[in-house]
Amino acid sequence: MLSTVSAVTDQRSAQPEPGPTGTALRLMLAAAEAFADKGFHATTTRDIASRAGLSPAGVYVHFASKELLLYQLSKDGHETALSVLQVAAEQADGPREALAEMVRRFTTWHAEHFTVARIVQYEFQHLTPEHRAEIVTLRKRIEGAVHSVIEDGVAAGEFEVADVATTTLAVLSLAIDVARWFAPGKRRTPEAIGDAYADLALRLVAAH
Amino acid sequence: MLSTVSAVTDQRSAQPEPGPTGTALRLMLAAAEAFADKGFHATTTRDIASRAGLSPAGVYVHFASKELLLYQLSKDGHETALSVLQVAAEQADGPREALAEMVRRFTTWHAEHFTVARIVQYEFQHLTPEHRAEIVTLRKRIEGAVHSVIEDGVAAGEFEVADVATTTLAVLSLAIDVARWFAPGKRRTPEAIGDAYADLALRLVAAH
DNA sequence: GTCTATACCTTGATAGAC
DNA sequence: GTCTATCAAGGTATAGAC
After folding, report:
1. CB distance A204–B199 less than 8 Å?
2. How far is the CA of A112 from the C1' of D2 (A)?
3. In this structure, are residues B131 and B114 in contact, taking their beta carbons and an 8 Å threshold?
4. Among positive and negative, which fits the CA dihedral A3, A6, A11, A15?
5. Do B193 and B107 reside in the same domain of the chain?
6. Which residue out of A168, A200, A204 would a mutagenesis test of the B interface target, given it has the greatest number of B Cβ atoms within 10 Å?
7. Does any strand D atom come closer than 7 Å to the Cβ of B70?
8. Which of B126, B114, B135 is nearest to B40 (CA)?
9. Strand D closer than 7 Å to the CB of B173?
């Protein structure tokens, strides 16, 4: 059910068939808002239930625990974030275009879906050790995608960086931190922020 | 008691006279570790008490509530962070040196004091509305300090940026996000990260 | 200033009727 | 699948002895 929640948040796509049924989806959206707003531990199952229009007990028909709700959201969000990077990398021509497009779309995603993005970046530490381990694997692939394109750019003589690992972290920080400060109603749109940050990323790698 | 907690964490300074007494200080250090590790709401007063070697009731002799403990830590941390920026700005000669020195020290602080920095950047939303409002004022001054130096650099013809506000956010994101990913025992020292990020900030503003 | 004991409340989760 | 009712556990904070 990759990006089911994101897709619904988008209000772009007609209802696809698989994944959570209507009520489960409503619960995930309710939980996403609550977790992003107050954090996992400050959110009560009663809060989630009432946001979704259910009684406190109604949650447990669809999710066995509050942690499982977080896990589904976190996994879904990480998979979507990784997919955003991969699609951008595939479609672009050369490291320079690839990095710009990856940062543009990754940043835009963090702003547009800042509730899920906040859960992805700041709440995964509250998962069980087993679930956290699974998510950490996805996080390494996200970091690896950015690391690769910078490495390619250096090898091709298009980028000049002092240290690939440090620059990778810096580029990721730019986009990730958007989930912390972004709020709807900001002057700049998610797309404008993505455009600006793509340029800034090219400066970080001293692209020719 | 500006930076009392940071100073003790440093193990650099001999005991100064004002501020919290020994036990209150131990409680603040215990709370800082716990809040940074698990977040405010996941931390129990029992946890804080036991880390400080006290009974659960012992906390309330020194702090009237758990929130007040967070408030003291947050205020102390924000004042120190602001002071780091101000000292760097005063000592430097010209916008280029000022920006580099501010980012160097601000970043190093976020790594070296990553427990307090994490509370500063990610836990202040759990303060009471009154306390949060006070902290927001400090946060605006922090953002203003970076905004000013970039504006000065542009005015002096030393920097070239598309938008001062966006670049300010990006520079701050670089340093702030260090508090999220830094962990003791990392290959790079706080100082090395600060040095690298000072260079990256100069790239972001296209310093001549 | 610190302790033991505990009040009082909210929490995550379950039982069982419909 | 949803509800009402409820449980056991653990939360913040206080009372009162020492």
Report:
1. no
2. 34
3. no
4. positive
5. yes
6. A200
7. no
8. B126
9. no
Nearest to A41 among B42, B170, B176 (CB): B42
Examine the domain organization and report whether B144 and B99 are in the same domain: yes
Does the CB of A107 have a partner CB in chain B at under 8 Å?
Answer: no
The DSSP element (H or E) to which B25 belongs, if any, is helix B22-38
How far, in Å, CA of A207 to CA of A126, rounded?
Answer: 38
How many whole angstroms separate alpha carbon B192 and alpha carbon B86? Answer: 21
Tokens representing A134 are 């699974």
CATH number of the domain bearing residue A100: 1.10.357.10
Read off the pLDDT of residues B10-55 as tens digits, 9 standing for 90 and up. Answer: 544 444 445 677 999 999 999 999 999 999 999 999 999 999 999 9
CA separation for the pair A100, A197 (Å, rounded): 8
Which residues in chain B have their CB less than 8 angstroms from residue A171's CB? none
Sign of CA dihedral B89, B137, B35, B121: negative
What are the tokens at B22? Answer: 């020994």
Could you give the CA distance from residue B61 to residue A85 in angstroms, rounded to a whole number? 52
Instruction: Write out pLDDT tens, residues B57-114.
Output: 999 999 999 999 999 999 999 999 999 999 999 999 999 999 999 999 999 999 999 9
| Alpha-carbon span B117 to B178, nearest angstrom | 9
Residue B53 gets the label, from left (phi > 0), alpha (psi -120 to 50) or beta, of: left
Domain that holds residue B179: 66-204
